[in-house]
Here is the input.
Amino acid sequence: MTIAFTALMLAAAVPATPPPVAPAEQRFAIGATGIILPTPPGYCLPAGNAETAIAMVNAADTMNDTPAALVSCRPGVQPLDDYYLFKSPKQAATFELSRPVLLAGQDQVCGYLLGSFTVEAGGRQERLTAAVCVTSIKRKVININHYEPTSAGRSKVQMLADVRAMAERMIAANEK
Here is the structure.
């Protein structure tokens, strides 16, 4: 992401092209699912230098699709001083997870994600359950992803406890 960061820094230093008036909403898709993004006041679609910089950032991100972006169009604020990128992990484009299932909670160690999905390999399909802990170790963000066949029958509570325990072990080993 060094290239992407450099692109944003260079674009921020160049006088910005005024963004056009934003539509009331944008529509995009994640996989085959349509999503509506209402445009909040003070934000516009990227244009000019901001559009170029965001395109460079998105090209450098091979793990995510970025179907939408908004930049500031408030007076006195450069577009790239305040912006949003809307990203979806490419591998998750076909997953269907409700918010309560996906956002399994947080504590002092982890933010938790939880879900089930089907994988296909060698002409065979298998349903997997994933428990994820998003944490920070030595000031670096890390996702600890734990996968098991759903057929193993372990509860989601057990899987979340497993990723928390793994995070605690890593934190203890790295932050002495």
Q: What stands out?
A: The first helix runs from residue 2 to 13. The CA atoms of residues 129 and 155 lie 10 Å apart. The chain has two domains: 2-91, 95-174.
